[in-house]
């Protein structure tokens, strides 16, 4: 139900009479809670809000929020506890245990399938069809999901533990959890953890189908945090993996692309913390940490793309590093902007991590030839001037006819020779040039014929070049020079609004400087983790407009100037 964001309709403080009714409803729905427990969850004087909302599928939902954490939610007059409440009172509901790998499926909107249920030695909890129940993972009694049983315990066993067991309504890491303080589940040892451990070992590598897509989405969307054990970058394991990889064809091939990206993500994270981040930089914006440090730690030949990992978003990954592994501390110092405020420099995982020898320190823009291995070198741009019919008399002595292309130095030299040859330098002040009939016709306006008799040298050169046609020469390293008419247009970077106050950054004229727009779009997409689109420029056949979400002017400028972001 909460796999995707919900829409809030109203948020008001709960009245005293409504609180008394809610306490009665909670006591009736959850007998395992004592009177003191209910009073703690629904206090008489502390701030308790009631939030009316609509789920993404249109279902009307009522949330009861205490101290900015949702404690209960109500759907169709049925009340359910949230994971925040169950972490305080884990025995509130009968609980089914599943494997840790199933949690990522539940967070994506999947229901719990019976083959994924771990049956403890004391047997399954007794439930009836429609009963509210919790989901835990092996070795931890802290519930990670809430749902309703699709059948009774007897029917589950009668079907041989096959089929859909629990319809999930709410899970850790979904949008209802994100509506609170986003804290992680506590570690509550299970009373039969030894039995579970034995079962886990015996079933290792043979985990049956555990989850199926629910009504909120696919079972693989918005995945949760993998175990740190799977992502451990212990140096001994890494070296061992490389040795076996050379003999058996590589261990990376045995892992899925998502698992490989998770490992690369953690490697870049640990490398950045150990080698790049300094204590004086804290607090450090998470976006800056990604752009300036993590991307620069990506090994050559690999590309870091968070969207291809199980986390999908940087915030999910960093919260996992904070809540489950205690490597960093993340805080929202301003609304909607998260920062790293502390790093556990003495953490064993961080201290034992050895950065790889080779890493890409900076990703340069790609040139138009499409050679991604060669860094981009900007062209040498030289302004040129074309002799026009009106100015042809001034260039005849130098054998330069109409259409001749000259550099600024050549123009100055030819005009200087013309002045000296015709003895036009003023005798009293050599900074001035006397105007003869040819200069008058070529450089002066009609209104100046009777007024202007002399010109300064700089004015003479400026007027001459202004009357000539403009062109320019592009010289790329190792290529023939390219001469084009007109003045070269600068790379245009602008910000426009799209829809309801959404900003996009537009980039034009990259082709003029030998930059492939598609390569620039790819570079930006990975640098800022935003979608890009290529559109044709109106009125031009060979120009492409790069559009990227958000205001990315500074990032684009940094890439074009070759600065490290």
Give a structural overview.
This protein is an alpha+beta fold. It has 19 helices and 25 strands. The chain has a seven-stranded mixed sheet. Strands 1-2-3-4-5 form a five-stranded antiparallel sheet. A hairpin with a 7-residue loop joins β24 and β25. The protein is elongated, with a radius of gyration of 35 Å. It starts with 6 loop residues before the first strand and ends with a helix. GO terms for molecular function: RNA binding; translation initiation factor activity. Pfam families: Pre-PUA (PF17832), PUA_elF2D (PF26292), SUI1 (PF01253), SWIB_eIF2D (PF26291), WHD_eIF2D (PF25304). This is Eukaryotic translation initiation factor 2D. Keywords: Acetylation, Cytoplasm, Initiation factor, Phosphoprotein, Protein biosynthesis.
Features:
seven-stranded mixed beta sheet; Eukaryotic translation initiation factor 2D; 25 strands; 565 residues; five-stranded antiparallel beta sheet; cytoplasm; 19 helices; alpha+beta; acetylation; 24% strand; 30% helix
C-alpha geometry: elongated
Derived structural class? alpha+beta
Strand content: 15-25%
Strand order of the largest sheet: 8-6-9-10-11-7-12
- Compute the separation of the termini in Å: 39 Å
Overall mean pLDDT stands at 80
Q: How much helix is in the residues?
A: 25-40%
Instruction: Determine the number of helices (DSSP H or I, runs of at least 4 residues).
Output: 19
Question: Could you give a short account of the major beta sheet?
Answer: 7 strands, mixed
Write down how many β-strands occur, each being a DSSP E stretch of 2 or more residues: 25
For the CA atoms, what is the radius of gyration? 35 Å
Uncertain runs: 193-210, 217-253, 359-373
InterPro entries: EIF2D, eIF2D_N, eIF2D_SUI1, Pre-PUA, PUA, PUA-like_sf, PUA_eIF2d-like, SUI1
Biased composition (Acidic residues): 196-209
Pfam families: Pre-PUA, PUA_elF2D, SUI1, SWIB_eIF2D, WHD_eIF2D
Family: Belongs to the eIF2D family.
């Amino acid at each position: 139900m909460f796999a995707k964001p919900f829409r809030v309709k109203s948020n008001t403080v709960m009245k005293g009479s409504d609180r008394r009714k809610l306490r009665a409803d909670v006591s009736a729905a959850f007998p395992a809670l004592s009177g003191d427990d209910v009073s703690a969850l629904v206090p008489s004087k502390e701030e308790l809000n009631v939030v009316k909302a609509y789920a993404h599928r249109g279902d009307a939902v009522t949330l009861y929020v205490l101290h900015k954490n949702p404690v209960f939610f109500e759907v169709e007059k049925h009340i359910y506890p949230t994971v925040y409440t169950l972490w305080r009172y884990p025995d509130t509901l009968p609980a089914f245990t599943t494997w840790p790998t199933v949690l990522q499926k539940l967070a994506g909107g999947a229901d719990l399938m019976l083959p994924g249920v771990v049956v403890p030695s004391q047997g399954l909890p007794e439930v009836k069809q429609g009963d509210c129940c919790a989901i835990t993972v092996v070795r931890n009694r802290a519930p990670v999901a809430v749902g309703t049983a699709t059948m009774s315990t007897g029917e589950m066993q009668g079907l041989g533990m096959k089929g859909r067991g629990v319809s999930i309504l709410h899970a850790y890491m979904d949008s209802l959890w994100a509506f609170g303080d986003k804290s992680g589940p506590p570690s509550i040892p299970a009373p039969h953890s030894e039995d579970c451990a034995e079962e886990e070992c015996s079933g290792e590598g043979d985990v049956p189908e555990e989850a199926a897509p629910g009504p909120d989405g696919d079972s693989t969307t918005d995945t949760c945090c993998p175990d740190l054990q799977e992502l451990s970058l212990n140096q001994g394991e890494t070296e061992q993996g490389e040795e076996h990889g050379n003999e058996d064809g590589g261990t990376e091939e045995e892992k899925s692309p998502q698992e490989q990206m998770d490992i690369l993500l953690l490697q870049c994270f640990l490398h950045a913390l150990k080698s790049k981040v300094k204590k004086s930089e804290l607090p450090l914006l998470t976006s800056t940490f990604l752009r300036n440090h993590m991307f620069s730690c990506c090994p050559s030949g690999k590309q870091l793309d968070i969207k291809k990992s199980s986390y999908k978003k940087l915030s999910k990954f960093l919260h996992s590093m904070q809540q489950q592994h205690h490597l960093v501390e993340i805080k929202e110092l301003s609304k909607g902007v998260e920062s790293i405020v502390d790093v556990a420099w003495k953490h064993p995982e961080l201290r034992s991590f050895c950065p790889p020898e080779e890493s890409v320190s900076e990703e340069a823009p790609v040139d138009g030839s499409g050679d991604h291995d060669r860094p981009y070198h900007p062209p040498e741009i030289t302004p040129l001037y074309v002799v026009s019919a009106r100015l042809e008399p001034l260039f005849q002595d130098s054998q330069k006819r109409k259409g001749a292309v000259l550099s600024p130095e050549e123009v100055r030299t030819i005009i200087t020779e013309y002045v000296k040859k015709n003895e036009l330098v003023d005798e009293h002040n050599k900074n001035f040039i006397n105007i003869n009939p040819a200069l008058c016709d070529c450089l002066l306006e009609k209104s100046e014929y009777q007024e202007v008799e002399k010109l300064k040298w700089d004015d003479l050169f400026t007027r001459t070049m202004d009357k000539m046609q403009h062109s320019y020469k592009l010289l790329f390293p190792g290529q023939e020079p390219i001469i084009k008419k007109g003045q070269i247009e600068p790379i245009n970077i602008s910000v426009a609004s799209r829809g309801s106050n959404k900003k996009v950054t537009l980039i034009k004229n990259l082709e003029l400087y030998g930059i492939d727009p598609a390569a620039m779009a790819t570079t930006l997409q990975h640098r800022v983790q935003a979608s890009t689109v290529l559109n044709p420029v109106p009125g031009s056949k060979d120009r492409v407009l790069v559009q990227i979400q958000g205001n990315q002017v500074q990032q684009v400028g940094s890439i074009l100037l070759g600065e490290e972001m």
